[in-house]
Amino acid sequence: MAKVMLREDSGVIYFYVAKKDMEETIESLEFDTEENWGGEVELSNGETWWIQPGPKNLPKEEVCKKIAD
Description:
about 70 residues, 6-stranded antiparallel β-barrel, 6 strands, mainly beta
């Protein structure tokens, strides 16, 4: 589990892990509506993470879980 900052700029969603100083973009989302956003996400570096689905209110800080490299 890691604390992650999520923000959106010009339609691109950024996924930042401060502990690793890693910033990637989200390439795909399991759930992508304003009311139900998150689930399994794939990052631009190929990693897969889990974001608890909920309303899309960006920017926000979330506790996320890494699923795969």
